[in-house]
Amino acid sequence: MATLLGSESPCTGGKRRNCRSNIITKFTASKITGQGFSQGTQLPTCLLQERDKRAKWNGIPTVLQKLYESSHPNSDLSHAHSFLKVLSSQLSVEAMSFVTEDRKTAQESTFPNTHTFDLFGGVDLLVEILMRPTLTMQKKKPKMNDDLVKDCLSVLYNCCICTEGVTKSLAARDDFVLFLFTLMTNKKTFLQTATLIEDILGVKKEMIHLEGIPNLSGLVQSFDQQQLANFCRILSVTISEPDVGNDDKHTLLAKNAQQKRNAIPSRAEVNQVTLLNIPGFIERLCKLATRKVSEATGANFLQELEDWYTWLDNALVLDALMQMATEEAEQSSTESSDESSLATSPLRHRLPQSMKTVHEIMYKVEVMYVLCVLLMGRQRNQVHKMLADFRLIPGLNNLFDKLIWRKYTASNHVVHGQNENCDCSPEISFKIQFLRLLQSFSDHHENKYLLLNSQELNELSAISMKANIPEVEALVNTDRSLVCDGKKGLLTRLLAVMKREPPDSSFRFWQARAVESFLRGATSYADQMFLLKRGLLEHILFCIIDSGCTSRDVLQSYFDLLGELMKFNIDAFKRFNKYVNTPEKFQTFLTQINSSLVDSNMLVRCIVLSLDRFESQTEDVKVVEVLSECCLLSYMAKVESRLTFLFRLITIINVQTLTQENVSCLNTSLVILMLARRKAKLPFYLNALREKEYAEKYPGCLLNNFHNLLRFWQRHYLNKDKDSTCLENSSCIPFSYWKETVSVLLGPDRTSLCAIGSYIDEPFMDLDRDLLED
């Protein structure tokens, strides 16, 4: 309030000191008692006018005061609307500069008009005006002018993006947040309402209960497809667990502790159930995700699309322009039904076809994100059945070549982070979200075969018949009426574009993850051969060995995919040996593996497991031949190689640093020891670890660390059915044997040759005894 100081005030004719004392005292008292001044607009008009120029308020407090005086209950709001329009024009300039230029820090010096508007109670006044119809006792609520509502919402949004703290203060008002949803029933105010809600929910401390929204089911069912797509932007905030994007980075200790504290379903999970109970909701999302878009033509389509996105960085601007175009078209249609007049209308002419395409792409990104989250939730099986019945996968297959993966130039190969929230173009976001959806759909679920067409399903059956093995039950049970149409299924199309990607393209990460999810679960020889026939193994090896790829994310995804592709498959190891046909190539391959075991340990596990199985099949001539010739199997057959991997796997992790990403290192080390135990060689391996400790001059350190890791393993896995099932399916080792081996290794009997404690000398025992104590 320092800007109100001065020598004299024409309001009182006295010294400014007295005026200052009275006003400041009253403002301070009002904050404490709730009485007296509550808004800056209650200051004397003459005082506001006197100080306006010096304080550079640009007349905002004075106009605000007029808005306040003309917006009393039962007053004619047309006058109030005229004052609001004056304010809106002043504030929109600052909001547009925020959108079109680099995002600036929201502070007074950057956006003085918006800051002044909020300082003098403008935000609270607009909230009061908007909510006024809810305060009446009349059965028939008074209806406000749509344009007035739109302008109120737009000004509030401008304040949110330009003035620090406004969004949080609005988010703290639960009554206002829920009230905003009621405004979405009006199509004319929907866009402004949705944009403001999205901004508010993004900063709200507690996730809202969707059940608390009045008549949510009726609201959603009243939306047209465009509104529903926009609504998905809001829903994404209400159904996603906090920090889901960094899930792999959270330590398992912290996550387990949080799960104990939150034993009941989270608010996000409750909201997911609420959505699934809305009749027709999932079916409409499937239609949105798969509806066709008129194809844009021209060699510079992608560049045009990117140029638009550079400017239309804000969803509000993009949707507003499209809405203007629609409204202009509707207005023109009332004047003339001639289609040519619509095509040549001024705004339509300025909006290229590519804008309509990118608009549809942005819609699909939001819809696919919601479907992806629901697929990963507790109601996964219910969602899966719905997506299958509503033919989501065949619909996406029909869009693949025309929209999802058009044949662009190399300019679309942008390397960026794998976080789904990365700041990238709609085209890139669309592709990544599509791949994440495929990954979630295929992962450990029998519906994965819907990614193929009928001919490809027949091919799988033929592979099984030729190998004289039974068909996978999930394949037999697949409903052929729900699979992909056309000459190629979605998986086959994905493989084709995967091979064309440049080595370091980050699309490779998501492509490999999507294909790997098709193979995950119980190993299927037919599935592996289907992909091997299409040259997938050679493509992966080229990327790892010959392409010069340096992206750790891409290499990790390819290591994981290679492991699933080769596991227990003697033909895959034969193909590997044919491609890696020189010592130099093999050494390059080993160097890539050893450069980061966190990234490659799943492949190491695959090789160890496969070797163990092949060594029990020596009656098979082909197996014996490959065992004797394959450089990879020969390398892993050496005890020294397995011991080296075991030592490194235990060394690079500890209980405090275990995450969902690196816990696989612990499980891979366990696989090596379980297979050793089967052959009665467990004491040999444990003694080798002890000798390694002393050779490194850190006695007890390695084995104590491993002891603590196994104690954590018991706590983590013995209460999680899903994780234990995954371990059993991926290794073909019964989970009971996993548990038994861990118990043996943690045995308290120091005379047992299979207990870790027997190999730690007394002075070095239990270095970290209290590490896991509650």
UniProtKB/TrEMBL annotation:
<dbReference type="GO" id="GO:0019902">
    <property type="term" value="F:phosphatase binding"/>
</dbReference>
<protein>
    <recommendedName>
        <fullName>Short transient receptor potential channel 4-associated protein</fullName>
    </recommendedName>
</protein>
<dbReference type="Pfam" id="PF12463">
    <property type="entry name" value="DUF3689"/>
</dbReference>
<dbReference type="GO" id="GO:0006511">
    <property type="term" value="P:ubiquitin-dependent protein catabolic process"/>
</dbReference>
<dbReference type="InterPro" id="IPR022162">
    <property type="entry name" value="TRPC4AP"/>
</dbReference>
<dbReference type="GO" id="GO:0031464">
    <property type="term" value="C:Cul4A-RING E3 ubiquitin ligase complex"/>
</dbReference>
